Amino acid sequence: MSYVRSAPRALIVEKGELLTIVLQHEQGDIFHVLPGGGQRYGETLHESLKRECYEELGVGIEIGEVAYVREYIGEHHEFSHFHQGFHQLEVVFRCQLLGKVEVAELPAADHGQIGVAWLPLEDLSRVVIYPSQLVDMIRNQAMVFPRVYLGDIN
Fold first, then answer.
1. What are the tens digits of pLDDT across the range 92-101?
2. Quick check: pTM over 0.90?
C-alpha cells in the first residue's frame, strides 16, 4: 500500500548556525537533516514537531511561522534504490529552542542518529545536508526561501 507520510521539521538558526541532526547510513556515510519527523495519527503538526524535537534534541521548542513546504518522492532522487515507494511531505517551521541541547543525553534518538550539530551557515556547502538546496538559500547569514512551496526536492 502506498501513502504519503507527513513530517514536520524545525528550522533553528542561532548566531549564524543551523541546528541539525547527524545521521549515519548503514554504509557509513554521514549526513545532516533538520530536526523533526513523522507525524502520528491524531497529532497536530505542532504536537508532532514538539515530540520529535524532544526525542531528537532533548529540549523543548517554540514553534513559529512556516518557512517552507517540501516534498520528497524517493524514486526521483539519488536514493531511489532505498526509497522506492517512499513519499514524504515536510512542513518546515521556524523554531527557537527553549533550553540548551545536551548532546550526551538524547532521550530517544532516531535510528541512525549519531549526534546533533550546529553548522555555521557559511560551511553548509562542506557537509552533506538534506535537502541540499538549503545551501543555495543562505543570504546574509539567514535562510531565505524563494517561495513557501519548494516542490519535490532533495
1. 999 999 999 8
2. no
